[in-house]
């Protein structure tokens, strides 16, 4: 005989806590990872997802991560990252991340090419990149400019 699932300690009227979804490549297709505040327990996470998003939750596993500190010369310890809790939620249906937008890939390419040029300059090589890299950077920059112009045109229409 199974007992009914009890609700969490915090009543959720309006969502005042933030759940951030985390990309975790090692999880099964029906599992999703969230970064939640340390005060949330398993019951709170379960009730939040079922009541607000209507997700059928099978299991919730949580892990606590402590705040990380680093030592600063002269000023003592400084907090680098806050404490958080990671929750791995098993749901009924397989979850699939949406495809990354094209502009994310363009910005990543632009960042990689810029980093390559900066490294070349730091190592004492000539600053000017080879012809193929310059052509690739020019293509990426033009594509980003077109996207930005299209977005600004859409915003003016609204």
TrEMBL record:
SUPFAM superfamilies the record matches: Ribosomal proteins S24e, L23 and L15e (SSF54189)
Protein's GO biological process: mitochondrial translation
Molecular functions (GO terms): structural constituent of ribosome
Signal peptide residue numbers: none
Matching Pfam families: Ribosomal_L23 (PF00276)
Keyword line: Ribonucleoprotein, Ribosomal protein
Cellular component annotations (GO), alphabetically ordered: mitochondrial large ribosomal subunit
InterPro entries hit by this protein: Nucleotide-bd_a/b_plait_sf (IPR012677), Ribosomal_uL23-like (IPR013025), Ribosomal_uL23/eL15/eS24_sf (IPR012678)
Assigned protein family: Belongs to the universal ribosomal protein uL23 family.
Identification of the protein by name: Large ribosomal subunit protein uL23m
The species this protein was found in: Syncephalastrum racemosum
């Amino acid at each position: 005989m199974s007992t009914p699932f009890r609700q969490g300690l915090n009543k959720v009227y309006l969502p005042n806590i933030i759940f951030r979804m985390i990309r975790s490549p090692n999880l099964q297709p029906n599992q999703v990872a969230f970064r939640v505040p340390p005060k949330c327990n398993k019951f709170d996470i379960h009730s939040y997802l079922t009541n607000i998003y209507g997700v059928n939750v099978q299991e919730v596993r949580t892990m606590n991560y402590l705040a990380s500190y680093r030592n600063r010369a002269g000023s003592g310890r400084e907090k680098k990252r806050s404490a958080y809790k990671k929750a791995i939620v098993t749901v009924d249906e397989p979850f699939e991340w949406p495809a990354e937008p094209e502009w994310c890939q363009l910005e990543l390419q632009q960042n990689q090419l810029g980093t390559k040029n900066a490294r070349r300059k730091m190592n004492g090589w000539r600053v000017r990149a080879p012809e193929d890299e310059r052509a690739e950077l020019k293509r990426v920059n033009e594509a980003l400019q077109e996207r930005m112009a299209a977005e600004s045109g859409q915003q003016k229409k609204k």
